[in-house]
Every structure is written in structure tokens, then in C-alpha cells.
Amino acid sequence: MTSLTDHARNLLARTLCGRAPAQPTAVFCALGTGGSPSTGLTGEPVGNGYARQRVTFTGTGTQSNAEAIRFTFTGPVGTLTHIGLFDAAAGGNPLTWGPLSSAVSVTGPGTATINPGGLTISGS
Fold first, then answer.
1. Residue 30 burial (C-beta neighbours within 10 Å; 0-12, 13-18, 19+)
2. How far apart are CA 13 and CA 7, in angstroms?
């Protein structure tokens, strides 16, 4: 995932200029249907058990999720095509977004899982 949002670019710019921005204290993964640099991920499901999931990253260069990320659904939410990161479990600021390697069709109760190491963030 390499599409930084405007908010994340501003954080990075302040950091590079020696200004101390308010960095996220936690990062939450979300699923949706699209995205843009200004809004980050768009089309997040509402209801049917969907909730953003906290994610912990590991690595010295490229960062990857240290543990499985599990989204549990109690009903259908449609086809999800994108993934994004936010600095809050609800609302908050978008950080980055991008397409999933394959779409996830949620037609009823179930779980969508991103295995450890399946979500990566790189500087290139």
C-alpha cells in the first residue's frame, strides 16, 4: 500500500522539516470500495458486524502486519475492493489506502482475514 493520503503527506512533511507532528498512537485497518488522496479509503461498510481492526506492524524497512487482521461480519455488506489505514477506530484521519489484491464478496455472516505479513507498507 503506497497511496498516502493528504493528511499523511502533511505529517511526513512536518517530520522532515524538524517539526513535531502528532503521530498516530494506534493504527486501524479498514475495508471499503475505493479511495482518493484527500479522503483515503471510501465506501466503508456500515453495520452487519463490520468494524475497523487495530493493526500492529513490524519490520525495519518495509512494514508488515505482525498478527492476523480479522474482520467479522454478521450479514452481507457487498463486494469490498480496497483497504485503508486510519488513526482511529471510528472517524479519525485517513493515512493510506490502496486496492486489495483480490476483491472480497461478503454475502452473509463470515470472516475476512489478512494473514500475518499480508499487509505491507513500503517507502518506495
1. buried
2. 10
| C-alpha grid cell, residue 6 | 493528504
Overall domain count for the chain: 1
Please, are residues 65 and 57 in contact by the beta-carbon 8 Å criterion? yes
Q: Exposed e or buried b for every residue in 81-111, given b needs 16+ CB within 10 A?
A: bbbbbbbeeeebbbbbbbebeeebebeeeee
Residue 2 pLDDT level (bands cut at 50, 70, 90): low
Which amino acid makes up residue 58?
Answer: T
- Predicted local confidence at residue 15, as pLDDT: 77
pLDDT value for 37: 85
Cα separation of 62 and 44, whole Å? 26
Interval 17-76: pLDDT, tens = 777 777 788 999 999 999 988 889 999 999 999 999 999 999 888 889 999 999 999 999
